[in-house]
Known about the structure:
The chain is mainly beta. The chain is built from 14 helices and 63 strands.
Amino acid sequence: MKKSKKIRDWYALKKTLFFMRLTVLFLLIGIFQVSAVTGYSQQSRMTMSLKNTSLVEVLNEIENLSDYYFLYNQDLIDVDRKVSITVNDQKIDEVLNLLFEGTTVKYVIKDRQIILTNLNEETQSVQQQGDVRGTISSANGDPIPGATVVVKGTNNGTITDFDGKYTLTNVSPDAVLLVSFVGMQAQEVAVGGQSVVNVVLAEETIGIEEVVAVGYGVQKKSLVTGAISSVKAEDLQSVPVARADQAIQGRTAGVSVLSTSGSPGAGTKIRIRGVNSNGNSNPLFIVDGMKTGDINNIDPADIESMEVLKDAASAAIYGTEGANGVIIITTKSGAKGERAKISYDFQYGVQSSRSDMDLMNAEQYKQWMEESGAGTVTLDGTDTDWMDEVFESAPMQKHHVSYSAGTEKSSYMLSGSYFTQDGIVGGSKAKYDRYTARVNVKSNMNDWLEVGNNISFSHSKKKYVGEDDEYRSVVNSTLLIDPLTPVTYTGTPSNVQSLLDAGNTVLQDENGNYYGLPSYVTGEIANPIALLQTYHNYINQDKILGTAYATIKPFKGFSFTSRIGLDLTYQVQHSWAPKYYFSSENQNAQTTVDDTINKWYTWLWENFASYSFDVNDHSFTLLGGYSAQEYQAPDWTLHSGPMITEGDDFAYQGYTTSNENDRTGGGFVDQTMNSYFGRLSYDYKSRYLVEASVRRDAASVFPTNKRAAVFPAFSAGWVISEENFYNIPSVDYLKLRGSWGENGSKANLPGNEDKEFWVFGIQYPGADDVYQSGAEIDKLVNTDLRWERTQQLDIGIDLRAFAGKLNFSVDYYKKVTKDLIVSGSGPLSVGNDWPYVNGGDVTNKGLDFELGYKGSAGDFDYSVNLNLSTLDNEVTYLKVDAPVSGDNLRGYNLTWFEEGYPVWYFKGYKTNGIDPTTGDPIIVDTNDDDEITAADQTYIGDPHPDLLYGATFNCAYKGFDFNLFLQGTHGNDVFMGWFRSDRPFSNKPLFMFEDRWTADKTNASRPAANNTSDYVYRSDLMVSDGSYLRIKQIQLGYTLPKEWLSAAKIDRARVFVSMDDYFTFTKYEGLDPEAGSSTDNRQGVDRGIYPIAGKVLFGFSLNF
């Protein structure tokens, strides 16, 4: 019976309406905020009644009631004069006319400025005072709009216009101008009787006054006592990546960012100072105050800064979710008083495979096969280069536009972007499209109330092909299929006709030619070009991430913030499979449709207050707050078939014919947590620094009596350069700091650990061999299960020298995770799944170094930044009876979590060269029992690098700029998991052929062709050095001169060309040494990974 299409449409309609309601809600919030922003500048009427009040109080009242502000010279305007004024819904010029009626004061309204002057004083001092005008610009000649220019000692001032120009009236010849702008060094400039005074502002040296984001606030970098690394907006401007997490790779010490795949839209795996757990080691992301697990929805161009909290003291304020480190992302916003700005960025690139891995050709394959004992192989002229057939050039492009503006009391930023990328394997079948939109608004409703919101929406569409797996993986089949198989046949050969006669479906290309079928390689390995035709996999995702807040500041130093956040993701994973036959192990006799619907929903409500005050030279900041959150994750799965007919238009559950294999499923997760937190920060003369924090979390995933836990932290710093005895002129700033703290983690615990679940429908043998239905306990209960705890000690030094040009920091850390949540063990006769228990410890320790230098020589500006980190990782304790196995490679447990070894190390046979007589590997008898068995398997490799490093070099000269970015690892191993002992006739990499043992080459490094035993394919012969140095980016840019742009009203224009991920230096013999995986227990295992593409890009940026 055919399923009703109405049901499917109803659910689709409900989903659409649901997202429409949410989108409208958040857009209304944003529009309301924007309306609040623009309303002040458009509102020019006011109502007030003041009796016998000083003029200055009336002016202040006008400023409070409107968006205007006054500029005047107190020596010329009698602001103490008593006035009375009553107006009702009158324009600003009418109010000013009434206010100054009968006086010699005149006014000029310029945008939001009201400039007051005195006619009599102007006339009397015309010989002594005059107008001064000029331009305020940056060191590279760009005008600075919005800079403040004030006559020192007066209220006579103005703000520069769009072109950085200003004009001041009534300026005495001996006056001094105060010129300032955010992020630039303020200057005092003497007028000296000149009528034109141009000022060039220098950028403020990044150093001790830099502000960084910390938990629930910001802090001067000079006062930070924890280990925090920053990536700023200027560091991201030249990074043409799709994901924000990719932008920090190689830019901060102690942070490993590993691409899980080179496929379009693929994610990354971030580890801060190592892998802590056999469960979850992902860091916590905080985006504008909202917790989230995925930042793929954020366009890097929207990011103002990214702070990485690496030590426990910095992250402890986040308690149970900070054990793996915290990454705080602050998105861009408009600036108060900022004129409207529009920016547009465009990028277009071509991707290609940069691997130089070669496979055996037909002649070499024939020789290998005959040496292996497969018999005589006949060549028919076919010599398919499958690497060349599968890998292709693929386009990518990105558009990003933003609009920002502000008044004296409000600011806002709107942005949108589109990113699209095809794959170098599969082309448009491995395609990723993403659309993003953002609304950030902040408004000061009055002197004590600020409200705002930061809201983003993203929609992504992803098509993907199988990879990094033995089954249905295009890359895996590319590496293993023999070169004697053609891409397609001419005509219908006998092997194809036999399959057709048997009722099988052999795939054809668009010209009706049958795809080639391998004759020698058996099993699931298939023609990769034909395999691409079986992929119809789609993931559509909609995500809303945002916060709305209100902050009150009733008196100096005190603020209270109430903030609510939402992270809502709705995802549909849809796939369908046609009928096909490649082999008995790789076929699909019936068309099928599969759908998985996920909804991930988190709401977060936080209320916190802070109070900062000074007592003489002692400065204090107190913070306290409460947090509540809930996470829900319902899911639904549907499977049906066969389809009425093949094709995307018919790949729906309603277009299938029902049968007994149809199935549906679903699940639901509901987790809550509430928390209390507090922090005390203290410093004495910015010299002695102390900070302490504590957080209490209670999470529903744990048993009732173990839900709550308290996590403390303490840190201190000594700014030695502030001491009176300090006398090293070249070193401007020197700080010693240390911290200790404890964070928690619930790993991947699903919850309900104190509840007993039963499985019904179990069949048990009864009397006379008649089976009876019954039930059994699914998993035993553990009411003592508690949080994982990570304790970390950090000691660091911060140094800045040569007037802030040189920056250096070094940290030593030791991080110990206790009470790991692992699966318990017991007698197998019980038959139930064992409960989770606390049963292991992991230690990570190492050093982090960061070094930067910024200098100039005439018109040549340059900067160099280096970061380097070491890592030593070990499982120091494991309570369970046996080590925990991880990745299973065709029945072979390769990775292990075992006491005394690195997390998820490689385990296999150790070899001692190749036997010169037989060509067989010499297996080491590790347990000395005089026989080689599975018990001799031991440590053969570690997927974790001993050393991570990154380096950037930037320079600029007269409009030209150049960027070089390097990133690499050292000491990590990769297991070449695509080799198959059960597929002896598969193709091999050329190095296996060239380095093999033969009777004429007995000192070879690889076994003979006829050796197909597990002693080869489960040994250290398959382990390769995965260390690499990758040139992540070489970019050349040019900023066009202002005089070329002025006619088009363009403020700034820059063009660039770039080569990204184009050059990699490595000893690894596979496709890509960055063999990543979304799970830690598969890291470093290469089953035929989708390699990272090299890119050649062109782009430009326009600012209006």
